[in-house]
Amino acid sequence: MAAQNNKEVDALVEKITGLHAAIAKLPSLNPSPDVDALFTELVTACVPPSPVDVTKLGPGAQEMREGLIRLCSEAEGKLEAHYSDMLAAFDNPLDHLGMFPYYSNYINLSKLEYELLARYVPGGIAPARVAFIGSGPLPFSSFVLAARHLPDTMFDNYDLCGAANDRASKLFRADTDVGARMSFHTADVADLAGELAKYDVVFLAALVGMAAEDKAKVIAHLGAHMADGAALVVRSAHGARGFLYPIVDPQDITLGGFEVLAVCHPDDDVVNSVIIAQKSKDVHVSGLHSGRAVGGQSARGTVPVVSPPCRFGEMVAEVTQKREEFANAEVAF
């Protein structure tokens, strides 16, 4: 089995290395048929479950991976800017978000994050104010959370790029509900201090602090300034998806002054892993509040690696709908 896994890992690393070389040779990472085709092939190769542990690859593969993540970040930024400009041309941009090819992924990721917060944060969540750090020119996560899950919450979106914030703010100009609860700030997270204490939940985007040491510094900074009891949602990656996004070590979150409540590695089209933590003066690991743990360790104890929230209710609803459609078809016949 080990030999089979080694062959599978070697074949995957060889494929990813070839794709990295092809992407690096592109004259531009702006959306185009060539760019779209290569990144589609890359994502298709990385999303299926894989035995690869990218943190244990050799120096050459690590250097390739770091370069690939930077290219993915640049391409993602250009793709979002392109579609943000396109959406801004409509009278009400929020009515046309489905034009973005990965919009459904944001819907599913935000739903997962909300469900994990509600499931694992003691007492549940009803945040008055949320910060999203690294919101970008298409702040889909904030929009989905505000529109579908947190209808009474104010959202402060932070990004290093002023142009990204200008693009993002234009998308909400015609909306009197969600738009009234969205604000955009150009700032480095390292420069935020006292204002962090006013948030009940802070979301940290996957590409904020791409190097492991930079991510750890960002988390430690949040731990130094967030309010006790506030929740932190960190986007990470797992398995071969670590070629696309940085992997966050839960120990860095614990050492940053948080209690890690849950770690979730989706196995569907949600590419990012999600880590739920809570700021605490006296960091301790008390185990799961609910759900199923399947292993994992941190510097201070067991980290609960959990399955995604059960979608049994959705399955039942879908089956019921299909049965009704079938029954109606029989009547019509």
UniProtKB/TrEMBL annotation:
GO biological process: nicotianamine biosynthetic process
Matches recorded under InterPro entries: Nicotian_synth (IPR004298), SAM-dependent_MTases_sf (IPR029063)
Reactions that this protein is recorded to catalyse: 3 S-adenosyl-L-methionine = nicotianamine + 3 S-methyl-5'-thioadenosine + 3 H(+)
Leader sequence residues: none
PROSITE patterns (UniProt xref): NAS
Top-level lineage group: Eukaryota
Similarity annotation: Belongs to the nicotianamine synthase (NAS)-like family.
Keyword Acetylation in record: no
Chain's role: Synthesizes nicotianamine, a polyamine which serves as a sensor for the physiological iron status within the plant, and/or might be involved in the transport of iron.
PANTHER family noted in UniProt: NICOTIANAMINE SYNTHASE (PTHR32266:SF29), NICOTIANAMINE SYNTHASE 3 (PTHR32266)
Annotated GO MF terms: nicotianamine synthase activity
Name listed for the protein in its UniProt record: Nicotianamine synthase
Metal-binding found in the keyword field: no
One family name in Pfam for this protein: NAS
Species of provenance: Triticum aestivum
Gene3D superfamilies, alphabetized: Vaccinia Virus protein VP39 (3.40.50.150)
Keywords, alphabetical: S-adenosyl-L-methionine, Transferase
Enzyme Commission identifier(s): 2.5.1.43
